[in-house]
Every structure is written in C-alpha cells, then in structure tokens.
Design a protein that fits this description.
Elements (H helix, E strand, L loop, with lengths): L11 H14 L3 H27 L13 H13 L2
C-alpha cells in the first residue's frame, strides 16, 4: 500500500529533517513516518479517552453501608403488606 502526502512549501524543512533522521537512524523514511503516526494516534486515543472521562461527573455519595438481600427488598415488602 502506498500513501502520498502533500507537503506545503512552508514545511519543506520538515522533509530535510526526516531525511537526516532516516540516515542517522538507518531506517527508511516510511518506517519513521509510520512509527510517528502510530505514536500520535495512540496518544490521541488516550487523550480522547481522558477527556471523555473528565466530562463524566463524579458524585460523592458519602460512606455507604453494606446491604444484604433483606435490605434490598424491605421497602417493597413494606409497600406490599401495608395494604
């Protein structure tokens, strides 16, 4: 598969840096670009998940007592037998 990317004139220096990094690291430009995109997308996913978590309000209900089955049904039994 091939991906062609348009690089605006104002960002041509980025391609020179990519060429230099590829030579220094002895990797292809494609490998470097794909690694960078992979890291970016992973970080983006984590940021989006974190932002979503921040949008969900957290309510402090205070200390909670342990409940057993009788506690869960007591109110319904009171209603049922109050008639």
């Amino acid at each position: 598969m091939q991906l062609n990317v348009n690089v605006p004139k104002g960002r041509e220096d980025l391609l020179r840096e990519l060429d230099r990094a590829a030579r220094e690291l002895d990797q292809t430009k494609s490998e470097l670009v794909l690694d960078a995109v992979e890291r970016y997308l992973k970080d983006l996913g984590e940021r989006l998940a974190r932002d979503l978590d921040e949008d969900i309000p957290v309510l402090d209900l205070g200390p909670m007592k342990d409940l057993d089955r009788a506690d869960l049904y007591a109110e319904r039994e009171d209603e049922k037998f109050a008639r």
